[in-house]
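Section 5.1 Outputs to date
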Amino acid sequence: MSVVVKIELGHNAIEKDKPTKEGYTHDWNVFVRGPNGCAIEHFIEKVVFHLHESFPKPKRVKKEPPYSVAESGYAGFTMPIDVYFRTKEEPKKVKYIYDLYLRVGHAVNNIRLEKLTFQNPLEDFRKKLLLAGGVNILNYAFPLYSEMHYLPLGPIFTKNA
């Protein structure tokens, strides 16, 4: 039996009244969280946000909620985000590429919903996933790769044989 669990990646950004002496025009906050307040810390060990290299200490590690980083800046950028799982079996993490964009004259409130499917997780990890709002599903609901004509909405994880 497999478990499907959802997480949200997103950001908020607001334009400053006037640029700072460094030239920063926006305040922003990027986050990883559970939808509808689900406690994803049950199955997430840590989240690593890889900010643009122009930021001090661009690798930001968050080991407990809120999994978020707040900064000021003047331009958007593409941010890799690594989400590590509380499990001893593979996969131990998933990497997302997140577009942190800014708008002039408008606030930004963006949320991207990601669905993670773990096929036959170990019982301990299954319990963690269920505590975080995960749902058990039957394995036969998944087509064989050769039968797929499109990519799934989120990553599908399988145990190594």
